[in-house]
Amino acid sequence: MKTQEQIKEMVRQKYSEIALQDKKENQTSCCGSGCCTTEVYNIMTEDYANLEGYIPEADLGLGCGLPTQFAGIKKGDLVIDLGSGAGNDCFIARSETGETGKVIGIDFTDAMIDKARVNAEKLGYQNVEFRKGDIEKMPVSANIADVIVSNCVLNLITDKDGVFKEIMRVLKPGGHFSISDIVLAGDLPPKIREAAEMHAGCVAGAIQKQAYLELIKINGFRNIMIQKEKSITLPDDILRSYLSETEIQEFRNSGTGIYSITVYAEKSKDSCCESGCCSN
Question: Is 277 a domain residue?
Answer without folding.
Answer: no
